[in-house]
Structure formats: C-alpha cells, structure tokens
C-alpha cells in the first residue's frame, strides 16, 4: 500500500528508495553513486561545497547568471578562495577561458549546465574534458540540464551532477539528488569544512540499505518513483528530444513574431528567455499571462527583471501547451500595441511540429505518443 501512512523505516519504503536510486542512476546514465537529499536543489549545491572542500581551497566558479552567482555567494560564504570567471548575462563562459584559469592549485570548478535565469547553456563537455586533466573536481548544477540536454556524466568527467525534483523530473519541489564520482569521494576524504545535515558519506552508508540518514520525504519519494517510471517508459532520450523540439518551436515562434532571444548563441532547451519588445515591461507580459489565461511564465531575475520573460518547456510540457502559450503571447502583445500578425507564432510551432511528425511516423517526438493510430 503506497499511502501517505507509509513509514520511512519499513521494507516497503526501502524498496521504493532503492528503486529510485537505481532508476536515477539509469536515467542519468552514470556508474557513479547517486544520493537523494530532502532539500530543494540548493541543498545539494551546498552539500557539494561542504563535503568536498576545506576553507581556503582555491576554486573556480564559471558564472553567467543568477544561479552562477549563487555558486559565487555560497563558495565565498564557506571561505573558499574563489576565482570568478564571468560571462555577460545571456552568454556562456568559454571552455578555453576555463582551461587557461586551471592552475594546478585549483581544487574544484563550479558551473551551471543550463543557466535558468538567462536561458543559456554551458559547454560542460568541453569544460569537463579540461577539468578531467587536472586534480580538480567538476561540480555541475544540472537542475534544469538533466532531462533537457545530453549529459554524458562519466565520459565527460562531470564529477558531481546535481538535479532537483521540480524541473524536468516533474515532481513538486523538495528533493535534490546528485551523482558523485570516485574522484569526488576521494576529495571528501580530505575535506574539512563542517557539515552535519548534508553529510554525503553518512548518506551513502544509509542509502546502501534503502534508507536516508534523516527522515525521508516519503510522499516526494513516491512521487519521484512514479515520475521515473514514466521517464523510463518513454526513455530519457525522448524526454530530452521533447524539450529540444519544443525549444526549437518556441524560438521559431519568437522569430516569426519579431521577438529577440536573450541567449541567441547558446540557447537552453529547458527555458527560452525572450527580450520584451521596446516600450513593454516583461512584467506586464507575465502578469497578463496569469490574469487573462491562468498561465505561468517567469519574469527576468535581478537586473533582467522587466527586460526579459521566460517560457519553460521541459518535463511533461507538450506541443498542446505550446500552442496555447504562443497564441496567448500573441494576444498579449497585440493588446499592448505591439505590431504582430496574429497566428504567425502559432504557425511557426505548427510547421516545426509537422516536420517532426513527418520525419518519424511511429512516435510523436514532441509528445512521445505513438502515432500509429492517428
Ligand atoms: C531551479 C534551479 C535551482 C534550484 O533552486 P532551488 O530554489 O533550490 O530549488 C538551482 N539551479 C538552477 C540552474 C535552477 O534552475
């Protein structure tokens, strides 16, 4: 019985816990250990800092947005010696810049695979190949990267890869998980920063028998278990394809509407950041989505607030959602006096969708549904 009354120290729950860990390993495609923590994604980010480093350790943070700045603040809060490699919002830190900065005293490198605040991705493959040649560990916040972009954790040298329940994993917020390479475990043997709630060695010991050190979030684990069954049923590659195709359709719709993308050179498949047209505050767009249509899109964060709006298209988001979002966007722009041809964005989405449906007749790449009976 999988009710709310399931106790976390029972065999029923241990079975769920062990299945979730095994399935996470499978969908993340890694041989590394995977652990689950009761926290939002930031908790796993903090765990990677406190468990792998000592005060004064030299680390590099590659930052190009608000989540990169979170790494900067967090590593400084714990007294690390932080070198900041920065790219402007909407761009990415280059692997060449990282390679140049990687002196032998650097113990760790932090980055976002997908920088959700700007809708840009980092080339974590090239970065990982550079870090792999050194003694440093590569810590990747992939909270919106997992399930939206291919991440070959083991061969690319991604020592710690962090995910969260509430993005492409389609579960309410409250669980974070991370994969940990042998190189990262070795760093932990020397790391002296204080830690208690997030003690990864302790969690690993408990996880071996299907338990967590502290009380597990039983409801969220049951939900994650369900989400993982769904992801396995369609395949992680299809989940990623879905995000990529929807992202492409979103970008083409924006072009058709004369809108400019904020991260045009290296756009993320998880979220599309769009510049608000001149004279229109992006907050108005966000507010009208909610008030007129009950739909939620996001404003820019920090200094990007008012300048960009962000449309998510990951997890179970499908083409039907996108038709609605783009049609609504057109109406909002039109109502605010922005010159748009009604239907032009929707037509762009239809064109992308039609093209994909024609090239693959068995599976609908966008919805993951079988096309046989259509
Ligand atoms: C959502 C997100 C996080 C997690 O933030 P929480 O508020 O702790 O859930 C971290 N990094 C990125 C890139 C994200 O998109």
Describe the structure.
This protein is 42% helix and 15% strand. By secondary structure, it is an alpha/beta fold. The chain folds into 2 domains: 3-233, Type I PLP-dependent aspartate aminotransferase-like (Major domain) (Aspartate Aminotransferase, domain 2, 3-Layer(aba) Sandwich), CATH 3.40.640; 236-372, Aspartate Aminotransferase, domain 1 (Alpha-Beta Complex), CATH 3.90.1150. The protein has a 7-stranded mixed β-sheet, sandwiched between helices. It has a 3-stranded antiparallel β-sheet with strand order 10-12-11, with helices on one face. β5 (114-115) and β6 (120-121) form a beta hairpin. It starts with 10 loop residues before the first helix and ends in a 15-residue tail after the last helix. Pyridoxal-5'-phosphate (PLP) binds next to α2.
Q: Strands of the largest sheet, in order across it?
A: 1-9-8-7-4-2-3
CATH class of the largest domain: Alpha Beta
Number of helices: 12
Mean pLDDT across residues: 95
What is the helix/strand order? HEHEHEHEEEHEEEHHHHEHEEHH
CATH architecture verdict of the largest domain? 3-Layer(aba) Sandwich
In terms of DSSP E residues, the strand content is 15-25%
In total, how many domains does the architecture comprise? 2
- Shape descriptor reads globular
How many strands, what sense, and barrel or not for the largest sheet? 7 strands, mixed
Share of helix, binned: 40-55%
| Poorly predicted tracts of residues | none
Q: Kindly report how far apart the N and C termini lie.
A: 37 Å
